[in-house]
Specification:
Blueprint (H helix, E strand, L loop, with lengths): L3 H9 L1 H8 L1 H16 L15 E6 L3 H6 L10 E5 L5 H11 L2 H4 L2 E5 L3 H5 L7 E4 L14 H14 L4 E9 L26 H7 L4 H23 L4 E7 L5 E2 L5 E2 L7 H4 E9 L19 H7 L5
Parallel strand pairs: 1-5, 1-6, 3-4, 3-5
Antiparallel strand pairs: 2-9, 6-9, 7-8
Helix pairs in contact: 2-3, 8-10
Amino acid sequence: MINATTLAKGVTSVPGFVREYGLRGGLQRWAGLAYHRLNGGIDGRSLFEMDWDVCIILDACRADELELQREAHDWIQEISRFPSLASCTWNWLPRTLQVTPDDILSETTYVSANPFAARFCEPSTFACLDEVYEYAWDERWGTVLPRPVTDRAIHHGRTGDSDRLLVHYVQPHVPFLTDDADPLSKRNFDHDERSVPDAWDRVTRGELPRQTAIDRYRETLSTVLEDVDLLLENVDADDVVLTADHGEAFGEFGLYGHPQNVDMPCLTQVPWVETSATDRETHDPAPYEPGVSTVSSADQLRALGYTE
């Protein structure tokens, strides 16, 4: 239950929202967050409760946007909804680890392009933890592109002996993979300066048209799905699911992106697609030498739009 002290503290944050996002955008964002956080928490489920051999996570993928991509991918038949544990990865990953038995995690290989894995996972948490962002971070785009994730997933699918393979792509999360998207500033890799606003911040501020950001999101989703196609024809698995850690807000209740602790369908009712995979050996994965990137995980998180 929210008490008067908490309400008062929330009201005092209004000026900060206005400074960050402008009068209209700041008030809309504050009101949207206040409304949803006053109306209860998120009651979701761990994806490990379900039966699968390979689980593919598309970071920040909306279920309705995946529906628009259905005709381009014959493996997408039915898209159902799954209740996520959180509205952002910062909460989703630790909550998933907390509610999932250790013996299940220890039978899973986790291939992750999301830098949060370093914050919440110990090397011994999983049978194998492949932190792709450590050695395949692309400084031009400020993210991990889909192909290194696909390559590492194929490698583990063909050579690993764990019961489950969890594959976590960053896309369609910002930064978008479109030529007309604004490039990231070098400040995204500087410990002493705050990262530049991402696309959804700019939409909230009125600096970027909402439809432009949505179009770029859709192009980025299409790009990562092409790599999912490649993955599905280069591993063997009877039970494959594609889902998301959380969704993305396109302006519902004045909110854009994926703020934490907000239970809206576009954020917490994530897509769930069931299919299978057959290794037709159409792709030889590029060799990678797991190691430490010259870009720290903290800088990588800032590039993804997270600040601490």
